[in-house]
Give the backbone structure.
Amino acid sequence: MYIGVNRKKEILTDLENSVIRKAIETSQAYIENITGQNFESREFTAFAWVKGEVLKLSIPLINLFSIRTISGESIEIDKEYPMLNDQPELRLLSKLPKGTKIIIKGEWGYLENGETPLLIKEICEKLTLLALDKYKLPIGVYEQWTDGNKIKISEKMIDRSMTGIPEIDQVLRKYKRRKVFSV
């Protein structure tokens, strides 16, 4: 989870409380849905097709476990090539024909200094507070008055739109994943 017990003691006093856990999980899912990224380390396998010597990845790669062709042939990469959060790429040293399908196993996620970015933690906390505010709304239906307009964050989650709360939307835009559909 992006936030935990020590972030706001007056609110997150008992992480076992299912309402609090659900509010945090829903806020985290909303952030991931809007930005197109996860902000924790997660292990999974990705598939890509070779288009040149540099693979442009759509998700930052934290730790590469293996990279091989679909037929099992190991692929060499330039380990000195920088991996940036905003432009994740791998430089291939192995010469492969364009269109070769490859499998990349590793840890993926957008981290800063090895952890969830501070701004993302703060936004998760604010969204969680909206869920737990004085209106006592059911989890998943968070209402907030902003500039005279009432918004329901759960509706925003469905259509992948921003919250309408400027301080939250500014951070979400900053971390929005660039569009890369093929590598």
In short: The longest helix spans residues 18-35.
